[in-house]
Amino acid sequence: MSTATIIDGKAFAESLRTRVGHVAADFTAKAGRKAGLAVVLVGEDPASQVYVRNKGKQTLACGMESFEHKLPADTAEADLLAVVAQLNADPAVDGILVQLPLPAHMDEAKVIATINPDKDVDGFHVVNVGRLATGLPGFVPCTPLGCVMLLKDKLGSLSGLNAVVIGRSNIVGKPMAQLLIAESCTVTVAHSRTKDLPEVVRHADIVVAAVGRPEMVKGDWLKPGATVIDVGINRVPGVEEGKTKLVGDVDFGSASEVAGAITPVPGGVGPMTIAVLLRNTIVAAHRNMGLALDEGVL
Ligand SMILES: Nc1nc2c(c(=O)[nH]1)N[C@@H](CN(C=O)c1ccc(C(=O)N[C@@H](CCC(=O)O)C(=O)O)cc1)CN2
Predict the structure, then answer these.
(1) Position 160 in a domain
(2) Pocket test for ligand 1, best of 233, 244, 281 (most atoms within 8 A of CB)
(3) Structural domain boundaries enclosing 36
């Protein structure tokens, strides 16, 4: 029987977008223009197309300007870099995001390095990675920041808690660990080579699963009452012939019998990603225009 509290990321994301909308309206009144987010999509990856469409819709719904740049899959890297350079120079653009993954012929690190760090609302530029690691103000990747928002909303202070992050990607695992360190957690980063992962996870008050393996984390790995944040988005065959379903990196059925609180998939961490992107964009707009903002209201 499921006894865990379900952490409703969809509802939290909606309330964050409402707060962003109020701040965006205030920005428009003060700056005499709307804040602007540019999203660049290269290729026709179906999931990326959905994410980019949703980013555009939600940007407009929050009262900000949305600029979409869709480039064919065979675009030369130099042409993509030229688009980014043009967005860097455009005063109407406060935030720039290049949707990942990029086609295989492109060097993601090189493309990200071309974005002006002060417009890098994804927080992927090495300057922002360094700012996060050293506690300086910058931009923090959207998914991990969304996870921390959900954790603090559920638990209040995270200070002194044991956190295990499963996964060491630049987008989620590493920044997640940095953010939890900043919240004074004791952090372990586990990954595919970790020995006896269930034993490592068993000591965690907080488990963040971002490993990309469907339903890998089982209920009997968890410390009873642990808070489980599932970042996984895996499409697997459904019960009906030819249909698929979305599952996380956590086996929700068994984990929800042991955890104290858990994010579902879908409807947990996923919706926070775009809401935090909008938050980062309105923060960028204020910083770039030299306008004061109490970021605590977001
Ligand atoms: N430049 C970036 N690229 C990518 C990022 C990113 O943060 N920046 N993250 C992901 C994709 N992503 C946003 O870009 C994203 C992923 C998932 C969701 C979401 O709302 N998920 C839903 C389920 C959606 C579905 O049905 O497929 C959920 O979990 O409830 C939003 C955004 C990779 N690329």
Answers:
(1) yes
(2) 233
(3) 32-116
Angle at 139 between CA 133 and CA 145, to 5 degrees: 80
Of 216, 243, 237, 108, give the one whose Cα is nearest residue 169.
108
224 C-alpha vs ligand 1 centroid, how far in Å? 29
User: pTM surpassing 0.95?
Assistant: yes
What is the CATH number for 146?
3.40.50.720
pLDDT tens for the chain, 298 residues long, are: 889 999 999 999 999 999 999 999 999 999 999 999 999 999 999 999 999 999 999 999 999 999 999 999 999 999 999 999 999 999 999 999 999 999 999 999 999 999 999 999 999 999 999 999 999 999 999 999 999 999 999 999 999 999 999 999 999 999 999 999 999 999 999 998 999 999 999 999 999 999 999 999 999 999 999 999 999 999 999 999 999 999 999 999 999 999 999 999 999 999 999 999 999 999 999 999 999 999 999 9
Residue 46 sits in a domain whose CATH number is 3.40.50.10860
Kindly state if the Cβ of 139 falls inside 6 Å of ligand 1.
no
Do the beta carbons of residue 289 and residue 254 sit within 8 Å? no
Asked if 166 and 57 sit in the same domain, the reply is no
Here the ipTM equals 0.97
> Is 83 among the domain residues?
yes
Identified catalytic residue from 118, 120, 122, 251: 122
- Nearest C-alpha neighbor of 231 from the set 216, 218, 250: 250
User: Is the domain of 163 the same as that of 259?
Assistant: yes
CA of 49 to the centre of ligand 1 (A): 10
229, with CB counted inside 10 A (0-12, 13-18, 19+), is: buried
